[in-house]
Model the fold of this input.
Amino acid sequence: MEPVVSLAAMDQLAQGIDHAEGICMTPDGTIWVSGEKGQIYRVDADGRATEATTTGGWTLGLAADGAGRIYACDPNHRTVYRWTPGGGAPEPWSTGVPGRPFLCPNWGAFAPDGSFYVTDSGGWKTRDGAVLVVRRGETTLWTDEGRDFPNGCAVSPDGRELWVLESTPGAIVAYEIRPDGSAGRRRVVAEMPGTVPDGIAFATDGSVVIACYRPDAVYRWRADLGLQLLGHDPEGTVLAAPTNALFAGPGLGEILVPNIGRWHVTRFRVPGLAGVPLFYPPASAIDRQEA
Done:
């Protein structure tokens, strides 16, 4: 399978990040990237990265709300932190379900109503993963049907499904978000044998972009096309264990991919491919309502 985009057509941004993992964009268009010692970096318009804060652990997935606050998954502390750029230190926001603390909080995604779905990957090949949801400050178990290291996730553009990548064995699965907020049954969208899928992002044409920890590759999947190889780096230098994918830039026409195997973010474009805007619920839909 020949890649659509050559390595020569890919840019390398934010040099010097400590093994880039998570990535998000706040509503003002600022890009944020996480590092392996708990760092959260701001990526400026010129592509330079500056450390803004740290959890002191290890930050994986990042997400942002409508108020510009950032939510960071930290498996070392088994906590999802919330941090306001320009404010104080990140503060614990969720430690899991009472009686069922997080094992490995990995990636979170907001739905339009303010629900925050977060994968708890569990251990590698121990089949103890789950998806949790935080609503109004209360964390509950949403589904434990997909136990095989649930990793990156994204809410579908219509807000009706949560798509989750299972890393071992590689698969894309989906769950209906029922009208009452509960989870539908696990549905296998596509199997990805021989890969370790990590991050997922929706495009406007109904496809999804998938960054894979192994091999060093980024794929696109669409129902009528199957899997399409967007980029592949056998030497692991431009794409080096790419972990997640974010659409950014003018018209959301740029794909940004952090690389946990090195120290940069890769940027490239695919002609005709653009991202769906993320959901940025307001604070009033997220925060606990006091009586």
The chain has one helix and 26 strands. Residues 283-286 form the longest helix (4 residues). The mean pLDDT is 97.
